[in-house]
Amino acid sequence: AMVDRMDQGIAKIMASLRETHRFDNTLVLFMQDNGGCAEGLGRGAKAGLPKRPDAPEAAMAADELQLDMIPKKSRDGWPVIQGPEVMPGPADTYIAYGRGWANVSNTPFREYKHWVHEGGISTPLVAHWPKGIARRGELEHQPGHLIDVMATCVDVSGATYPKEYKGQTLTPLEGRSLVPAFRGEAISREALYWEHEGNRAVRQGDWKLVAKGAQGAWELYNIRDDRSELHDLAAGQPERVKAMSDLWQRYAERAMVLPLTPYYSKKDNEKLSGRKKFQLSANADLPRNEAPQLANKAFRIRIQLASPGRNGVLVAQGGTAQGFSLYQRDGQLCFAVRRDGKLSAVTGKAIGNDATSIDFRLAADGTVTATADNSEILSGSVPGSMTAMPADGLQVGRDLMGHVGEYDSDFPYDGKIDSVQINITK
User: Fold this and answer.
1) How far apart are CA 120 and CA 146, in angstroms?
2) CA–CA distance from 374 to each of 257, 346, 359, 379 (Å)?
3) Which of 12, 179, 279, 365 is the 20 to 30 A CA-CA neighbour of 228?
4) What proportions of the chain, in percent to the nearest 5, are helix, strand and coil?
5) Are 314 and 326 spatial neighbours (Cβ–Cβ below 8 Å)?
6) Mean pLDDT over all residues of the chain?
């Protein structure tokens, strides 16, 4: 059904291009998904969860995290049902693809979506541009990367990618234009790089270096001879492994990939959950596993200022799904929190030009208060803290990754912060 709807939608777009006489001079790029997903949401059984009337022994499968991800009702109000005896497909079901079917989809490649072995990153790309591509119906074996799409669009449109925008320095494009490949020519590049939740890879020519997880060992494969990645050559070629891993490290540093933030086990989170006090320096950047566990918790933030600013983020954790941000806009102190994607915000008074400290509190009932040098500058309420631990980490002085508040950029603070202390109070 999804493929049918997709085909009909693409057909409408192409028909519109013909009707407006833009079909021949429009570059159309079509890329399919990057491998089958091995997640098994909804395929097992868990007692005490809603059951399907025609399969009384089948219970909806999910751990507590998965339950938060799964809708409880269909759009027309029917209970969503799951379980090993439930046939997936109807509108009232939510059952993942599963490892077995993902293995079928990805054969002969290794691993699945989430990993960066070939089963998790390989996808064909169809390029259609009658006036711009002379080749017809040919298969180009030269590899490209998703990041090349942006560079290609900049190239064919005649645009110039700016070095800065609205006073913010932009990270240069990592991708390369695919136009040479359209002509059957080689794309000039150092290497291709990947990182996804700690899984890492670099490909240079026919050689690919790949690792599972942030602590995984590097594996080396010759993709021309061994596309299925079955014969690890790392032990016999340590010099090549060292050279390619150094390439990856330099990429990770310049492309702001570090620190790595892979999935963390429940045990890891429990180990960290006892920490109640955090002393942070200016420009601190904590990955998820080191950040305060603030889900459904009251907390206090004390900020020491070397010189107060007027705009920018003081402290932020999380992103567009779950997170909080304490920031200034036009001098005024603001607090924003996202709970399951919904944004709530409180705006207070301006901070004085000679302020040396800010003391912010979020109470268990959602009450928000803040003082600057003991003078009240913020008072209000929000629904509460985050309802789950966010995927993104915590930063002082800017908001990296997903933005919590209503600001377009990382919104770096234009004042100077000495230190930040965060206390979990409940």
Assistant:
1) 13
2) 40, 19, 8, 13
3) 179
4) 20, 30, 55
5) yes
6) 87
pLDDT of residue 56: 30
Q: What is the pLDDT of residues 17-48, one digit of tens each?
A: 999 999 999 999 999 888 888 888 877 654 33
Task: Give the residue with greater pLDDT, 319 vs 189.
Answer: 189
pLDDT number for residue 60:
32
Confidence (pLDDT) at 210: 97
Q: For residues 120-136, b (16+ Cβ closer than 10 Å) or e, as one string?
A: bbeeebebebeeeeeee
Three-state secondary structure call for residue 302:
strand
pLDDT confidence tier of residue 63, bands split at 50, 70 and 90: very low
405: amino acid identity, one letter: G
Task: Compute the distance between CA of residue 383 and CA of residue 344 in angstroms, rounded to an integer.
Answer: 8
Asked if the peptide bond before residue 90 counts as cis, ω within 30 degrees of 0, the response is no
Q: Which residues of 383-395 are buried (b: 16+ CB within 10 A; e: fewer)?
A: ebbbbbbbbbbbb
pLDDT classification of 197: cutoffs 50, 70, 90 = confident
Tell me 14's DSSP state. H
DSSP code for 288: G
Q: Is 149 helix (H, G, I), strand (E, B) or coil?
A: helix
Q: In one letter, which amino acid is 298?
A: A
Q: In what order do the strands lie in the sheet with 342-350?
A: 285-286, 394-396, 312-318, 323-329, 332-339, 342-350
Question: Dihedral (C-alpha) 270, 276, 281, 283: value to the nearest 10 degrees?
Answer: 50
Asked if residues 371 and 359 have their Cβ atoms less than 8 Å apart, the reply is: yes
What CA–CA distance (Å, rounded) separates 348 from 369?
9
Cα–Cα distance for residue pair 374/322, rounded to 1 Å? 30
